[in-house]
């Protein structure tokens, strides 16, 4: 994806980056934050391609034909190191940062070395402190990219040592299957709606979560098949095969949790919009007016909207723990429908 595709939404940012790239003033570390996962991924990949290209054009677009471009496209650029949450708890432990530091110490023969920390906010406290030392003692010819939707979770000292690239559109566009049915039913969650309504909506949310999990498992099966084939062709040792299998299993869980986060964010988005409507904000001025379709219902009272938004925020917090999802969704829906 070329950088130019982001020019319409972030014109000043793209112009500034193109100037920095072509004048040889690439920063040592960038903190890339935003509210859309696809935008963050696409932009980061585009910036990497631009920085690695040996002959970018005036707009800092990669040529696509040089050695570095070809290696990047083929996935064989050996000086690109990527770190992402791998455990079921979706955290980045200090061992990952130590492995990154080892990679940064390797000689590159003058080639640009790039390290990407996806979901950088997932670094545990010890990992953040270890990474801070990397920022304080930068390696020559190295670019660090911290990608996150929650920059506030990073240490202030980490944020202050990075150049901030903000890609926030202040909108949320979930893409999980069943989104239309989701919005058509979640509107029924109102104070006093009763247990029958809360049960129906909770069942709908649980069903969507189940479909997301099945899809993640299907993708995992394909990756396991590829791993088995790789074991045969590359003669992987039993230890290497086991380690890669464990990493793949953890990545499957992370894949599902990333997809589930869209569902949880959609719930929070709905009640966030309802809170704004309760304050008298017009429909066309809401961050996500499309969630209402053509006939939005009556806005809730301010007290009800405030209460429901707090319940949605509690749902997000509780989902971070290892809890029964079916009970979690049912308890949330019942709490919204209960007459306080």
Describe it for me?
This protein is α/β, with parallel strands linked by helices and 340 residues long. It is built from 11 helices and 5 strands, in the order H-E-H-H-E-H-E-H-E-H-E-H-H-H-H-H. Strands 2-3-4-1-5 form a 5-stranded parallel sheet, with helices on both faces. Strand 3 (113-118), helix 5 (125-136) and strand 4 (142-148) form a beta-alpha-beta unit. The radius of gyration is 23 Å and the shape is globular. The model has no long low-confidence stretch (mean pLDDT 88).
Task: Please give a handful of descriptors for the protein shown.
single chain, 340 residues, globular
In whole angstroms, how far apart are the ends? Answer: 50 Å
Largest sheet: 5 strands, parallel
Low-pLDDT regions: none
Topology as a string of helices (H) and strands (E): HEHHEHEHEHEHHHHH
**The CATH superfamily title of the largest domain:** P-loop containing nucleotide triphosphate hydrolases
SS content category: alpha/beta
At the fold tier of CATH, the topology name of the largest domain is Rossmann fold
Shape estimate: globular
Topology:
Layout: H1 11-22, E1 29-34, H2 37-52, H3 67-74, E2 80-83, H4 94-104, E3 113-118, H5 125-136, E4 142-148, H6 156-160, E5 163-167, H7 179-186, H8 195-234, H9 238-278, H10 302-318, H11 325-337
Parallel strand pairs: 1-4, 1-5, 2-3, 3-4
Helix pairs in contact: 4-5, 8-9, 8-11, 9-10, 10-11
Short description:
This protein has 340 residues and is of the alpha/beta class. It has helices at residues 11-22, 37-52, 67-74, 94-104, 125-136, 156-160, 179-186, 195-234, 238-278, 302-318, 325-337; strands spanning 29-34, 80-83, 113-118, 142-148, 163-167. It has two domains: 3-167, P-loop containing nucleotide triphosphate hydrolases (Rossmann fold, 3-Layer(aba) Sandwich); 179-337, no CATH class.
């Amino acid at each position: 994806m070329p950088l130019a595709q982001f020019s319409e939404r972030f014109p000043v940012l793209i112009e500034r980056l193109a100037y920095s790239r072509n004048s040889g003033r690439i920063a040592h570390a960038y903190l890339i934050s935003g509210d859309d996962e696809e935008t963050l991924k696409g932009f980061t990949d585009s910036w990497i391609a631009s920085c690695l290209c040996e002959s970018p054009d005036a707009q800092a677009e990669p040529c696509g034909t040089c050695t570095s471009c070809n290696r990047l496209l083929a996935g064989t650029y050996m000086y690109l190191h990527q770190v992402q949450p791998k455990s079921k708890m979706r955290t980045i432990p200090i061992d990952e940062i130590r492995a990154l530091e080892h990679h940064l110490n390797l000689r590159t023969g003058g080639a640009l070395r790039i390290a990407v920390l996806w979901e950088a906010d997932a670094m545990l406290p010890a990992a953040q402190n270890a990474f801070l030392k990397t920022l304080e003692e930068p390696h020559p010819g190295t670019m660090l990219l911290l990608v996150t939707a929650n920059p506030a979770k990073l240490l202030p000292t980490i944020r202050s040592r990075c150049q901030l690239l903000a890609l926030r559109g202040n909108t949320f566009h979930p893409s999980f299957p069943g989104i239309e049915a989701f919005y058509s039913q979640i509107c029924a969650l109102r104070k006093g709606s009763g247990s029958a309504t809360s049960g129906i909506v909770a069942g709908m949310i649980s069903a969507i979560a189940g479909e997301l999990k099945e899809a993640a498992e299907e993708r995992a099966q394909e990756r396991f098949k590829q791993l088995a084939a790789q074991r045969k062709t590359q003669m992987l040792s039993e230890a290497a095969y086991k380690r890669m299998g464990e990493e793949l299993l953890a990545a499957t869980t992370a894949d599902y949790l990333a997809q589930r986060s869209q569902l949880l964010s959609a719930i929070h988005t709905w009640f966030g919009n309802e809170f704004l409507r309760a304050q008298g904000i017009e429909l066309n001025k809401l961050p996500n007016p499309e969630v209402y379709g053509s006939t939005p219902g009556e806005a809730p009272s301010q007290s009800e909207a405030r209460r429901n938004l707090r319940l949605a925020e509690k749902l997000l917090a509780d989902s971070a723990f290892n809890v029964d999802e079916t009970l979690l969704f049912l308890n949330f829906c019942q709490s919204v429908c209960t007459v306080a």
